[in-house]
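user: Please supply your own:

assistant:
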Amino acid sequence: MDLTSIQPLLDWLNLHQQWVAATILLIAFLESLALAGVVIPGVLLLFGASAIAGSGALGIWPTLGCAFVGAVLGDCISFFLGKRLKQHIKQLWPFRNYPEWIQNGESFFARHGGKSIVIGRFVGPIRPVIPLVAGMLDMKSSRFVSINLCSALAWAPTYIIPGFLFGASIRWGAEFPEGFIRLLVTLLAAALTGFIFARLTHWHLNPDSKIYQALYHWAERQHHVRLIWYWLSERRQTEYIFPLPSLILLILSTACFGALAYFVSATGTFASINQQIFDYFQTIQHPWLDSGFAVITMLGDDTAIKLCAGLLLLWLIYKRHFAAALISFFIIVFAESSVVALKHSFSIARPLAEPGVAFSSGSFPSGHTTRATLLFGLIATFIAQEMHHKRRWWIYGAAMVPMLLMAISRLYLKQHWLSDVVASFLLGFAFCALGRVIFSPFNRKPITADLSLLVTVIAIVLGLTIYMMRQYPVIMGWING
């Protein structure tokens, strides 16, 4: 099905734009409602309606708010409907004709529990069925509502922003510069490379691999090496697992950073390519890109990172993971202090001055990129450690995406040279790997998600939203000035 199948509705909505807000709320509600969401083309309708909103009918925040409210209401009604009717749901249309929808939802809920509410929002046919199944299986109402609110915060931007941007680009007659396609291709290629590297690394260095086993047997024959091996190994029950991938990453990242720093400061090897990349980003300046990269770069500000890290550390303390909290705090402070010292030591000038930051603050390395790499790396580490070794790669690969976006934002806003952000990746990886190696002997109990983590995530999202709304005019004023 394509947009032409719903074109009459979109044409009507375009002529009666006063109904855009109510229509988006209604579509999000129906798309999340169990009995309707399995049959209506909710994704297409949302894209079309949000495109009309982006054309000037409605602002971005009211559009997101309507979608959020509609999604929450639809899921809540589905949940309480399931709680009320229980197994009688299976006798209602369309489920009596398609019993596999409920069966698939029950199977999915049995495998993932509360996480299925979040995952299910983004997974095709089971999306409107999971809340219904959760109610049928007597999930606690307070827990469902909390998870539902959190998942809707992520769902609304995912489904609304693409259509809104499309409508706005038509309204402005905007065409992105030709070089922008090259940037997208490069970004996708870099993300894919990160996925592949993480996949190969965890495939060949996990405890079942030949490389790991060969090193283990070699360490067993060396007295001092054996002591270090067991001292650094994590202890989960009777199993000892040495953090081999993290140790290798620490060594390689540190060595590569040292080599890069030498070439940048002593030989000027990267001066030419730095200038070429700077000139390239000069050619793709665009109002939409200005706004997008301004928002991304704000997420790497010192205040934003302190907010995220602080709340996550408090959650770890609340869950009594004191070693994880203490080591993470130490690594974050050490990394921030090291970046400041390195900037002062190398004293490489920025391409352009940043608002509120002295030109002498130094460009090498990028503090924003280092912070993002370290924070997302640590989060990925804590998530991945609760998964099987052969499945951890996609968590680390996914963490590469926000890291890359942060690096691109610093280049686009002309705050750093290419060598700065490459050095920051290496530095962030090294600090993250160091934290993982230090934490390994203390990693004795799982760090599991629960309602308190959802509350923490909601607090982070709200805090970041308030911060960005206050800082956005300042950043955009500097960019346009």
Observations:
- The chain has 21 helices and two strands.
